[in-house]
Design goal:
The complex is a heterodimer of chains A (467) and B (480). With 467 residues, chain A is an alpha+beta fold. Helices cover 23% and strands 37% of the residues of chain A. Chain A is built from ten helices and 17 strands. Chain B has helices at 2-12, 69-84, 117-129, 201-205, 208-224, 239-251, 256-259, 329-334, 370-375, 426-431, and strands at residues 18-34, 37-55, 58-64, 101-105, 137-155, 160-178, 181-187, 194-197, 231-237, 289-292, 313-318, 321-322, 344-345, 354-355, 360-362, 379-391, 397-409, 412-417, 421-425, 433-436, 443-452, 457-465, 468-475. In chain B, the strands form five sheets. In chain B, strands 1, 2, 3, 4, 5, 6, 7 and 8 form an eight-stranded mixed β-sheet that branches. In chain B, strands 9-16-17-19-23 form a five-stranded mixed beta barrel. In chain B, helix 3 (117-129) runs parallel beside helix 5. The longest helix of chain B has 17 residues, at 208-224. The chains are: A alpha+beta (467), B alpha+beta (480). The interface between A and B is large, with 100 and 86 residues. Strand 3 (65-71) of chain A pairs parallel with strand 2 of chain B, so a sheet runs across the interface.
Chain lengths: 467, 480
């Protein structure tokens, strides 16, 4: 098989061929990525990347220990070598440990819980040509110039096909597409505005509209105000809240961390942890999300409520974390790697339910003095158990005065807890938006958070960027 | 493979202004042990070819995991198609370079792939076991990684070279929990420990098991330690924290692509402009920073960068004054430099090279040992081992958290404090540098998680640093 553009059926065949070369209990995961990504700066193209890449991962289980090996080759000899390496790794782990490991064994297909079809694959996006990126970039440059700004950003679209086969009888395939465009408009004085969209379908990316949205933020008149550290009412766009919820996914809903008592919801399931209006779920087939049929162990995805009416409801599991959680726990379909990632499972299709506000203007209306945040930047964890994060605002931070978005603000540093912020939410917009990063470290794995905009009390500002 | 790439470049020479091709084979093995068990053993092999072309000033790049002749010819055709569909762009001339020719092999005393998995697991389990015992330890882990990278490069300018290098590293970490208080300790560094270019000897020298009981004891002690005080004070940063401070607030800020705006939409820009080179006072006179791709054992060491420019040693900052920036052939050409800084690096075959740090180091000072520096400090804090980091998109406003703080009173170490953080603004902070420990305290510290570019790329870099002292630093903001 050539690595050109293999079909899902060809990947299934390759997975079977690899599985035939495995000794003992084993799972084979085969995926292929075809993608395009174009970048631009100062309204000109800077880089353009096309990728055709095959990825084969074989995981073997031996006496409760796992060993995994990967290759980018589909040659029979390389599959044999990879299968042998995975088996040798599992055996070495078992021999060195001198005892049976805690991996419970590969999951078998559940006749009552099959992968559901989804509409996350768009054939036109899978076949997209580089001209699409060029046209989007030209549109962005034109609109940016109309606003006396320059456009900077990224356009990308890709397709990923996956097949999993295991000795326990799992046989699943999936095909997904995703597309993403980000535009920043910079004024000559360095002020910037931002807009981005994610979708399953590249045709949804409108370079001109996004650039208009970004430019509108960049050109807001006024000398940027400076805010002293303190607590402020805040209105956050979906991009900002999506970033925070992504961290919450890892810190609060990771079943492995929860088992070890270091998760933020340890001892708090069943307790109120957020405002009563908060409903957060992992919903892999929600209307706006980037759907996925199964996880890295081939376990079918299904919706799982995480916070219901402000009450912590559940954490997510892969096979190993579920086994460690004890009787009654089972994988929820959130493995990030065959056998489970060493750092544990996380939700990849978070959906925060919308509220009753018509738009951000309505969210701002009750605020006498507060902050409007377009997006956050370089967010990182300060203290895990408290979900305490720090980060900066960027590309569209404004002062809210007397119920309206007013002057630009110098970007601020925040140091605040996600769970505290969820508890301080006062209102959410009806409409939601899919937000994702689109940066793709390693093999392409598109995921995002569906979120409305929101208003919250007491956003903790701990510093300001210099002018 | 070199012949295949050279033939491909012969086929490209009349179809574009410039082209290069890289074939990369990367083998890696990682072993994780946790809580008395082997958590996972992972062996990865990745092979492919990336082809980069320049047509009318626009770049096109295509990568394939199929290294056959037909597949890389398809990759060349695709890269040309991608470049040709870009909007018209005024390209800057590439700074000239001598075509890279020959081969290079990095250091490796003990082949890590010749060490049995059983021996690796045994070493890690010994360290991991030595951290457990106290019931407040909820997670103890150890990991080790080995990698071999073989890179072949050819260009339409006549470059034809190959490089082979090993990396190895290991680390241990522990999490202690009591009530709602969670504390972490790591050795020899946070974020996957310490790595360097070389063989398994690097892991053996770390003596993980010897340090394991200490970090477990410290994690437990931190549970009952008072919260770090808040206020403006003198801080002494351990060498590992100086490395991350240098990485975030100096290394990234001096990447010329950021300074010129090419990374604005993702990684951000820089508070430094190209016009500042030669005149900007970046820090105090004790601050001398180099980017040296020729350092033995550096993760950012090579013979040629990923566009075939010979490895260089750049003086970035001399006695506090900005002297140069990290650059590529294109960015150097854009500002009229006659030579590239040799800083183009790519994360494997499926990513195109971008401007990266090599081994960015702070020169040692004359403050003697860490003990002497502490003895010379009346009052302040010693902060050790990074726990969190964040910096704005111009690399100005930063906030770091460390695993542990110790009070310094009258030149002696005193109480232990938990949850220390500090914050600052880059030039103000580096201008407050008033002591750097001497050469014997200087170490190359590997960093494995430097993210940049789209599609995302992870770079491995090293930073040579020694403990250093900074005055009037804002400590403890996150506790507010």
């Amino acid at each position: 098989m050539s690595a050109g553009h293999p079909s899902t059926a060809q990947l299934e065949t390759l997975a079977e061929q690899a599985l035939e070369r495995c000794v003992g209990e084993a799972q084979v995961s085969v995926s292929h990525e075809r993608s395009l990504l174009s970048r631009f700066a100062r309204s000109q193209p800077t880089q353009a990347t096309g990728i055709d890449a095959l990825h084969v991962e074989i995981m073997c289980v031996y006496e409760g220990h796992t060993g995994a090996a990967t290759t980018t080759s589909c040659a029979v000899g390389d599959l044999e070598t990879t299968a042998a390496a995975a088996r040798a790794a599992a055996e070495a782990a078992a021999n060195a440990a001198g005892s049976v490991g805690d991996y419970p064994g590969l999951p078998a297909p559940d006749p009552h819980w099959r992968a559901q079809p989804h509409d996350g694959f768009d054939a036109a996006t899978a076949a997209v040509d580089p001209g699409s990126a060029g046209r989007a970039l030209q549109d962005a440059a034109g609109v940016a110039a109309e606003h006396r700004t320059e456009a900077f950003g990224t356009w990308t679209a890709g397709a990923v096909r996956t097949a999993i086969a295991s000795t326990t009888g799992v046989r699943v395939t999936d095909a997904v597409t995703d597309a993403y465009m980000r535009v920043l408009c910079y004024r000559p004085d360095g002020r910037s505005g931002f807009a981005a969209r994610s979708a399953r379908d590249a045709a949804q990316l409108d370079g001109a509209a996004l650039t208009g949205e970004a430019a509108a933020k960049a050109i807001v008149a006024g000398v940027p105000a400076v805010l002293a550290p303190g607590e402020y009412a805040v209105v956050m766009e979906p991009e900002a809240i999506g970033e925070l919820l992504g961290f919450a996914g890892a810190l609060a809903f990771n079943g492995l961390a929860h088992n070890e008592g270091r998760g933020a919801l340890a001892g708090r399931l069943g307790a109120r942890v957020a405002a009563a209006a908060i409903n957060l779920a992992d919903a892999p087939r929600a209307s706006l999300t980037l759907p996925r049929a199964f996880d890295a162990e081939g376990i079918p995805k299904r919706p799982i409520p995480l916070i219901q009416d402000g009450v912590a409801h559940a954490v997510v599991h892969d096979t190993r974390s579920a086994a460690r959680a004890g009787p009654g726990a089972r994988s929820t379909g959130h493995a990030l790697a065959p056998g489970g990632d060493p750092d544990g499972p996380v939700p990849t299709n978070l959906v925060l339910s919308g509220g009753g506000a018509a738009d951000v203007a309505e969210l701002c209306a009750p605020i006498v003095r507060g902050i409007y945040v377009t997006r956050l930047w370089y967010v990182n964890t300060v203290r895990e158990r408290e979900t305490l994060l720090t980060g900066m605002t960027r590309d569209g931070t404004f002062l809210i005065e007397d119920g309206r978005i007013g002057r630009p603000l110098r970007d601020v540093r925040f140091t605040d807890s996600v769970l505290r912020l969820l508890d301080a939410i006062e209102a959410l917009t009806k409409t939601q938006r899919l937000v994702s990063a689109g940066d793709f470290y390693g093999p392409r794995f598109a995921f995002g958070v569906v979120s409305p905009a929101l208003r919250a009390r007491g956003f903790r500002v701990s510093g300001t960027t210099p002018g | 493979m070199l012949d295949q790439l050279t033939n491909l470049m012969d086929a490209a020479i009349d179809r574009c202004a410039y082209a290069d091709a890289r074939h990369v084979v990367h083998d890696a093995e990682t072993v994780w042990v946790r809580d008395g068990r082997v958590d996972r053993v992972q062996r990865d092999r990745s092979e492919g070819v990336g082809v980069r072309v320049r047509v009318g000033g626009a770049w096109g790049f295509a990568a394939t995991s199929d290294p056959s002749r037909r597949a890389i010819e398809r990759a060349l055709a695709r890269s040309l198609a991608i470049a040709e569909t870009q909007p018209t762009v005024v390209g800057h001339p590439l700074a000239p370079t001598e075509p890279a020719r020959g081969s290079w092999t990095g250091p490796c005393e003990l082949d890590p792939f010749g060490v049995t998995l059983e021996d690796k697991v045994e070493l890690l389990l010994a360290a991991e076991t030595a951290m457990r015992g106290d019931p407040r330890i909820v997670r103890a882990e150890a990991s080790a990684r080995s990698a071999l990278s073989e890179r072949t490069f050819a260009s339409t300018e006549g470059a034809a070279c190959s490089q082979r290098s090993h990396e190895c590293g290991a680390g241990i970490g522990v999490i202690a929990l009591q009530g709602n208080e969670l504390q972490v300790r790591s050795y020899p560094a946070a974020h996957e420990g310490q790595s360097a270019a070389g063989g398994w000897e690097i892991v053996e020298r770390l003596a993980l098991a010897q340090h394991a009981p200490r970090i477990a004891d410290e994690a437990v002690a931190l549970l009952a330690a008072p919260a770090c005080p808040v206020g403006e004070m003198t801080v002494v940063l351990g060498g590992e924290q100086v490395a991350l401070q240098l990485h975030e607030s100096v290394g990234h800020a001096l990447e010329l692509d950021r300074m010129l705006g090419s990374e604005a939409s993702y990684a951000g820009t820089s508070w430094v402009s190209a016009a500042d080179v030669g005149s900007l006072r970046y820090g105090s006179e004790l601050m001398t920073v180099t980017a040296d791709a020729t350092l033995d054992g550096g993760l950012g060491s090579f013979a040629w960068d990923d566009e075939g420019v010979k490895a260089r040693r750049l003086e970035l900052i001399e006695d506090g004054l900005l002297r140069s920036a990290l650059s590529s052939r294109e960015t150097a050409g854009e500002i009229g430099e006659s030579l590239s800084g040799g800083c183009m690096r790519a994360d494997g075959w499926a990513r195109q090279p971008i401007v990266r740090m090599t081994n960015v180091s702070l020169a040692p000072g004359d403050a003697g040992s860490l003990e002497k520096l502490i003895a010379d400090t009346d009052r302040g804090l010693l902060l050790e081992t990074n726990r969190s980091w964040s910096i704005d998109d111009r690399r100005l406003n930063f906030q770091f958290g460390c695993e542990l703080a110790r009070e310094i009173v009258d030149g002696r170490l005193g109480r232990l404090y938990r949850n220390p953080t500090y914050t600052g603004v880059t030039p103000h902070f580096w201008r407050s540098l008033d002591a750097v420990c001497s050469e014997p305290e200087w170490r190359l510290r590997g960093l494995l998680n430097c993210g940049k570019g789209e599609p995302g790329q992870i770079a491995h870099v090293s930073h040579g640093t020694a403990p250093a002292r900074f005055r009037e630093v804002q400590v403890g903001v996150a506790s507010a």
